[in-house]
Design goal:
Blueprint: H1 13-31, H2 35-51, H3 53-64, H4 68-91, E1 98-100, E2 114-120, E3 124-127, H5 141-149, E4 153-156, H6 162-179, E5 186-189, H7 192-200, E6 206-210, H8 213-225, E7 232-235, E8 242-244, H9 246-265, E9 277-281, H10 287-295, H11 305-319, E10 325-328, E11 341-346, H12 347-352, H13 354-357, E12 365-371, H14 375-383, E13 387-393, H15 401-409, E14 412-417, E15 456-462, E16 483-485, E17 488-490
Parallel strand pairs: 1-16, 3-4, 3-6, 4-5, 6-7, 8-9, 8-13, 9-12, 11-12, 13-14
Antiparallel strand pairs: 1-2, 2-15, 10-11, 16-17
Helix pairs in contact: 1-7, 2-4, 2-6, 3-4, 3-6, 4-5, 14-15
Length: about 500
């Protein structure tokens, strides 16, 4: 992903400290609210954003070059994930409450009363993304999941849409305040120095970041290099490779290629899950046909001029690598809109120049690499760095598929079969993360129900009197949470 660094007013250092102090004050009150109460407050934020949709979309259009249709769809996704996470915490399983009652016969010695539950980390710093001004920004997934977990949030806004961010920040703060949240539960700051101050502040307990590998790695090093290191959940970039077996290509090549072109050019190639490379059998590519497919895609402006300039620089570097040829030439229209570019190489060229050809290029471009033997698919899979996604188009009895899927599962967080990675659903089972450099923490996801878990840590209470325990662990289960008691799962549903 690519960041912009346009000039903007910095939040002064002392003001950043004040914001963090208010978040620290809010933390114990926010985390001790019953999950159902926090859920209602998340829904209140969603309602308030939805009520301001015309105003927010109009602001976003002026700052991002994105279309009204795209922005309205993204705002719907944003309010949906707030409500979805509200339902997740209301259900209660996210706390993983677990109780082992005393047992004198437990080998090798008596077992005491042990009760384990997840507890919010504390104030969290969130860095907004450039390419999703709603869904990965002020009220986006990182903020929503941290708030759902019970952590106050301080958002470092993205300079690519700062007016929109300021207004969204006001709406979120107002909605939370009116719903009864403690003052300091949510705040926004601006500027690179303010962002760095957040990462280094001793009272920040975790950081969530979506952006470029360069900036993300710098902030990650700061976070883990602190006197008291903290978790840094960074999404940094991915080329999301697509592997096509020989039999799949023979059976439905035209369908695969049309889906590929639509996927890599979607949103002007500015999705973190854009397929940046396609592995295809040699000798079957009809260049005239693929050019027609590429030419049929609509032109679109990139988010802003700085991202457009960075894309042009990356594109020129990629297309001039020794083994790369241009199949379909993209262009920049008078209004600044871009048409897609398609490049080609061989698997031998890809392997020999993997450092450059397997680097993310943020924009409407992708690379086809042609192979001679299907064993080369596994060869390419083995040299991949960490990815958000990897896709296989194949037949169910392809000999190469089991080994390829197993290798790709070592490299990516989400494996797609006969589909396209640019569709990212907000669900219970989704995984949006992967081994480095896709993310800095492959154990976690930034999308879906499990995203809440990034901002929680386990605590076990041993022999603590019932009335002093967190409500989630008390004997009568006043929150009606699902819990595991003496190894048996209990739903926690209240009696009828």
């Amino acid at each position: 992903m690519t960041d912009t660094d346009t000039d903007l007013p910095e939040t002064p250092f002392l003001e950043v400290s004040d914001v963090v102090e208010r978040a620290v004050d809010a933390a114990p009150r926010w985390r001790t609210l019953e999950p159902a109460m926090r859920a209602e407050m998340l829904r209140a934020v969603a309602d308030r954003l939805e009520g301001a949709d015309d105003e927010l979309v109009a602001l976003a259009i002026t700052e991002t070059h994105l279309t009204e249709t795209r922005l309205r769809g993204e705002l719907v996704r944003t309010t949906f994930q707030l409500r979805f996470l509200a339902g997740v915490i209301e259900e209660g399983d996210f706390l993983q409450a677990c109780i082992d009652t005393p047992d004198e016969s437990w080998p090798p010695g008596a077992r005491p009363d042990l009760r384990r539950v997840l507890r919010p980390l504390g104030p969290v710093a969130v860095f907004a993304a450039s390419n999703f001004p709603f869904a990965f920004s002020v009220a986006g997934g990182d903020s929503a999941s941290a708030l759902a977990a019970g952590c106050p949030v301080i958002m470092k806004v993205h300079p690519g849409h700062r007016q929109l961010s300021a207004r969204c920040g006001e709406i979120v703060c107002e909605a939370l305040r009116d719903a009864g949240a403690p003052e300091g539960t949510f705040a926004v700051v601006e500027g690179d120095k303010a962002g760095r101050a957040l990462v280094t502040h001793p009272d920040i307990s975790a950081v969530a970041f979506t952006g470029s590998a360069k900036v993300g790695r710098m902030l990650f090093d700061i976070a883990v290099g602190r006197l008291k290191p903290i978790p840094f959940y960074g999404e940094l970039g991915s080329v999301n490779p697509v592997f096509v077996t020989m039999r799949a290509a023979a059976a439905r090549l035209d369908e695969i290629l049309s889906g590929y072109v639509a996927s890599f050019s979607l949103g002007a190639g500015q999705f973190c899950t854009q397929p940046g490379i396609l592995l295809l059998p040699a000798g079957i590519l009809d260049r005239d046909r693929i050019r027609t497919m590429v030419a049929s895609q609509p032109s679109a402006q990139l988010l802003n001029d700085r991202i457009d300039g960075a894309y042009q620089e990356s594109l020129e570097a990629l297309r001039h690598r020794p083994t790369v040829e241009v199949v379909a030439e993209g262009s920049r229209q008078p209004d600044g809109a871009r048409t897609p570019t398609l490049l080609r190489t061989t698997v031998e060229g890809l392997v020999a120049d993997a450092e450059h050809l397997l680097a993310e290029c943020f924009g409407p471009v992708s690379l086809i690499a042609e192979y001679d033997e299907e064993t080369q698919l596994i060869e390419v899979a083995e040299i991949l760095e960490g990815q958000l996604t990897a896709t296989v188009h194949g037949e169910i009895d392809d000999v190469v598929v089991p080994g390829l899927l197993d290798t790709l599962a070592e490299k990516a967080g989400r494996i797609i079969w006969n589909g396209w990675p640019t569709s990212l659903a907000v669900t219970w089972a989704i995984q949006h993360g992967g081994p480095y450099p896709a993310t800095t923490s492959p154990l976690h996801t930034s999308v879906g129900a499990a995203a809440v878990g990034r901002f929680l840590r386990p605590v076990t209470y041993q022999g603590v009197p019932d009335h002093l325990l967190p409500a989630a662990l008390r004997e009568e289960n006043p929150l009606h949470l699902p819990r595991r008691v003496d190894g048996r799962y209990r739903s926690g549903s209240p009696p009828v």
